């Protein structure tokens, strides 16, 4: 799938969750320690906007606190527009090197939307389904660089999960999430 196509699919799943939330849901705890449902959305709106400065793309800030759904939808439209017309832009980052902007978004951001869909679904009291095959592929790709990922501070300590557990549970455990977590 193209970077634009994958983002559209993953963002659509996350958008469904955002749109299903009531105003009282935003304060619900999320599986990430110290985060709420609102924090999950804020994370996915704010960090990529800063990341894209490395490609000379300055997107205006969005007020996630005032309107989580509106901010999310605007953010998705902004990212989708970049992916559909990357215009040969290159994103330079001291941690990732120089990459075409659409590839950088696909590699570092779109997967984050996909994985945080699990967090938002759990925070809203829903059972997420990230797809067994994609979860197994992601876990297989991450295991060889586990120490690098842990050292980055982006993942908590692994949560023990049975090796014969569903791929999604094993992936979430690897990422430091308790697959059995409930708000």
What does the model show?
This protein is mainly alpha-helical. The chain has 2 domains: 126 residues, Four Helix Bundle (Hemerythrin (Met), subunit A) (Up-down Bundle), CATH 1.20.120; 54 residues, no CATH class. It is built from 7 helices and 2 strands. The chain has a two-stranded antiparallel sheet with strand order 1-2. A hairpin with a 3-residue loop joins strand 1 and strand 2. Helix 1 runs parallel beside helix 4, helix 2 packs parallel to helix 3 and helix 5 runs parallel beside helix 7. The longest helix is centred in the middle third of the chain and has 23 residues. It is globular. The mean pLDDT is 94.
List the helices and strands and how they pair.
Elements: H1 3-20, H2 37-51, H3 68-84, E1 90-93, E2 97-100, H4 101-123, H5 132-142, H6 146-151, H7 167-175
Antiparallel strand pairs: 1-2
How would you briefly describe this protein structure?
With 183 residues, the protein is mostly helical. It is 54% helix and 4% strand.
The CATH topology of the largest domain is Four Helix Bundle (Hemerythrin (Met), subunit A)
Number of domains: 2
Number-wise, the strands total 2
| The CATH H-level homologous superfamily of the largest domain | dinb family like domain
Strand arrangement, major sheet: 1-2
Broad shape: globular
Low-pLDDT stretches: none
* Mean of pLDDT: 94
CATH architectural designation of the largest domain:
Up-down Bundle
Radius of gyration: 16 Å
Number of helices: 7
């Amino acid at each position: 799938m193209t970077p634009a196509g994958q983002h559209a699919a993953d963002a659509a799943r996350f958008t469904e969750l955002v749109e299903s939330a009531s105003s009282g849901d935003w304060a619900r705890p999320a599986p990430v320690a110290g985060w709420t449902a609102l924090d999950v959305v804020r994370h996915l709106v704010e960090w990529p906007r800063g990341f894209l400065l490395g490609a000379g793309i300055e997107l205006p800030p969005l007020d996630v606190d005032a309107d989580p759904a509106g901010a999310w939808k605007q953010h998705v439209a902004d990212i989708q527009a970049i992916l559909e017309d990357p215009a040969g832009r290159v994103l330079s980052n001291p941690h990732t090197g120089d990459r075409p902007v659409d590839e950088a978004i696909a590699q570092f951001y779109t997967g984050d939307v996909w994985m945080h869909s699990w967090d938002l679904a759990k925070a809203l009291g829903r059972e997420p389904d990230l797809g067994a095959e994609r979860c197994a592929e992601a876990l297989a790709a991450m295991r060889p660089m586990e120490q690098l990922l842990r050292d980055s501070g982006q993942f908590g300590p692994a949560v023990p999960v049975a090796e014969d557990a569903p791929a999604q549970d094993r992936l979430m455990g690897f990422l430091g999430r308790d697959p059995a977590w409930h708000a």
